[in-house]
Amino acid sequence: MSPRDVVITGIGLVSCLGEGAELHWKAFKTPSLPPPTDSERFAPYTIHPLPEIDWSQQIPKKGDQRQMETWQRLGVYTAGLALDDAGLKADEALCATMDMIVAAGGGERDEEVDENILEASLARNDNGVLLNEKLTNDLRPTLFLAQLSNLMAGNISIVHKITGSSRTFMGEEGAGVSALQTAVARLASGQSTHILVGGAFQTEHPDMLLGYELAGYLHHGAWQPLWTRSGDGGGIITGSGGAFLVLETREHAEARGGRIYAVVDKVVSGLSPRSEATFARDIAAMVATLGAEPGELLISGASGAHRATGTEREALGGFSLRGFSGLTGHLKEAQLPFAVALAAMAISSGEAPAVLADIEMPYSAAPERVLTTAVGHHRGEGAALVRKA
Amino acid sequence: MASFKDHLGRPVVAVTGMGVVTSLGAGKTENWAALTSGKSGIHAVTRFPVDHLKTTIAGTVDFLPGSGEGMSALTYELAATAGQEAVAQAEIGSDFSGPLFLASPPIELSWADRLAMYRSSSKGAGYQRLFEAARSGHGKAIFEETQFGTVADRLAVLFGTRGLPITTSTACASGATAIQLGVEAIRRGESQRALAIGADGSASAESMIRFSLLSALSMQNDRPERASKPFSRDRDGFVLAEGGAALVLESLESAVARGAEVLGIMRGCGEKADDFHRTRSKPDGSPAIAAVKLALADAGMSEDEIDYVNAHGTSTPENDKMEHLSLSTVFGPRIKSVPVSSNKSMIGHTLSAAGAVEAVFSLMTMREGVIPPTINYDQPDPAIDLDVVPNVKREADVKSVLSNSFGFGGQNACLVMAREPV
Question: Does residue B312 carry a catalytic annotation?
Fold first, then answer.
């Protein structure tokens, strides 16, 4: 135990299962299958949609809500849940010095404007001019801001008054890995005392799905369990959701009387070249650097993508795996923060999440250490060890 | 002998390699010659049609093979070109052995590819047709351009950097943030060196239209080279531009041990988020003021020790007014005698790259003993009483620089650099 231990004191979660740490923990302890999905709206793709959310619970001003589209709202909302959970929401002084690292993709494009241009382009041979004509007349100024990656953080500053440093990392799952790794490193080295870290993904927009399907990554058809998806498509079922954590040094948390869920012991990351020969070995080696022992509980952010998920299963088959995305869908940038949140709840409640598939080994002890992973569906890998405080 | 530890006992961070590409050219030599002769890189846009656009000028980089190949390809090439110059100067070779921090713009599927995909299928309409095209395999070649991690991944392989590279976006402060991330990693002792790159090749009709909708761009199209006029009374917006810059950051101890030439010192970094508005700064300037003060404190220096300010100086009415307010608050009456110039008067606003590009120019300013001017300064804004080094370069003994970067989303990041270690 050290005053520089990095502790988790606030958890904010949103997924198709609902919102909040407690609700999610119940849903993972006693899962009901299949989880909420929608196979109609974006057929042949199945998605896990957002639950009903009363945005004003975390974004009281309608004016603020109007300045964002769903992706940014979701991030701001989830961040607010984490701050509330940490008991920091009303603490102006601590919010004003809190650092922030957000793992972000991009926001929603104007679907209607895009579709009008695409259709009009078939009848024209001056597409450059067409673009200028349509975009100049039809784009809304607010939408550009709603698309900007760093404006999720910008809106968190505005709505929740988080005004220490503000950094946005990009790069799919890897952005979430680096955000967590950097936050933990800054805390452990004394470069910060308290940090808000996390991300959100809003899949209910065709452009967000297209980002996967250009390379054939999406599963086609109805929901199937994560580890054994088969049939048409690439295996990924996406979801809308987010995960934010409040991390502090133990010293800082204890001084203000904050409740501690668990310690983030270590975060590692990698960029495997993913050759046939080395991919499984690289994943195993990365998890081994956390000091992992076979049989330990491992909450995996596996995406469902056939190759990456199959390789992760092969590399980490000796652990008691829990693939959380089977219930929530793939949350892209938020994968590792979400897994770490679940690990923290498993430790603080003294129980493992229920098995979701036959390949997931039962785990009956009260976990004192939980491993987490986020192996990117296309590139980038990360893992973290969460332990009892 | 210089100390390897700073005033807080942390490793001193040196710069041992620099590279830069802007609309003025590729490489430090070409850029510096143009910059110190007051030459502008701003020109009429030729990359795409400008019909219907309010702004028809930019500082695009049109001379690289990747110019016109889309945002992802050009951003990569700008980063790679600057990175190769920096790594060569640092004499590191092909195995960088440290982390990569990249500042680059948010990525999107380009219109050229969107339209080509649409034409490749005839089933359905709108996004449905794009999905049809994707399912027929027409998206595989362009998938990488839509992934935010692609550019950094390719750079990591090119330079042999270690681990998972970090791609950051803090809007127009991104370049400074990338440097700050590298400085912090070295101070934590995680690595002896880090490669910080800022690159932005995102000029397109859509990006120009988006900024125009926010009334951010200059519309002085008639004389492109005269449009960017920071601190002038008749300034009316920034000029969108492209560029790339790279810095090899290295612990002073490591640089000295391997006999590398020390090009300058990254003394301090400061940042402070603004919660006032998505595109406007808090009227009292307090976040920008705090960022400057935090950078000075991090550097262990007082404002009296700053010889020159490399301004954010975008040429928008709002930024230049706010930057003057924050500088005059921090520096007091002395600000009138501290030279403050804006590279953007010549290269335009290189957005995600700006903080890195201007850090390289700040370091060159100290090394060369020449301050690049703020050009197009014919009608001073009477409300902004600064020595902007008007129109003509100035020889000066500059031992330390403050470089400012401010961005949409309440981003404020400042760097303090010194010519020599203490």
Answer: yes
Give B83-117 pLDDT, tens digit per residue: 999 999 999 999 999 999 999 999 999 999 999 99
What distance in Å separates the CA atoms of residue A198 and residue A103, rounded to the nearest whole number? 6
> CB of B147 within 8 A of CB of B108?
no
Residues A116 and A264 in one domain: no
For residues B49 and B28, the answer to whether their CB atoms sit within 8 Å is no
User: Among this protein's residues, is B414 annotated catalytic?
Assistant: no
pLDDT at B133 over 90: yes
pLDDT for A375-385, tens place per residue?
A: 999 999 999 99
Start-end ranges of CATH 3.40.47.10 in chain B? 13-107+147-417
Per the CB < 8 A criterion, the answer to whether B165 and B154 are in contact is no
B219 touches chain A (CB under 8 A): no
Q: Which domain holds residue A120?
A: 111-142
A169/B168 Cβ within 8 A: yes
Residue B1 has pLDDT above 80, yes or no: no
pTM: 0.98
Q: Which candidate in B172, B269, B324, B414 is catalytic?
A: B172
Distance CA B153, CA B132 (A): 29
Name the residue among B148, B277, B409 with its Cβ closest to that of A170.
B148
Compare all CA atoms of chain A with the CA of B168 and give the residue at the minimum distance: A169
Residue in chain B nearest A97 by alpha carbon: B272
B7 is catalytic: no
A266-287 confidence digits (pLDDT tens): 999 999 999 999 999 999 999 9
Fold (CATH) for B13-107+147-417: Peroxisomal Thiolase; Chain A, domain 1 (3.40.47)
On the CB side of A348, CA atoms within 13 Å amount to 20
Task: Write the single-letter amino acid at B72.
Answer: S
Whether B68 has a pLDDT exceeding 90, the answer reads no
Indicate which residue of B138, B269, B324, B349 is catalytic: B349
Q: How many domains does chain A have?
A: 2
Contact A139 B273 (CB under 8 A): no
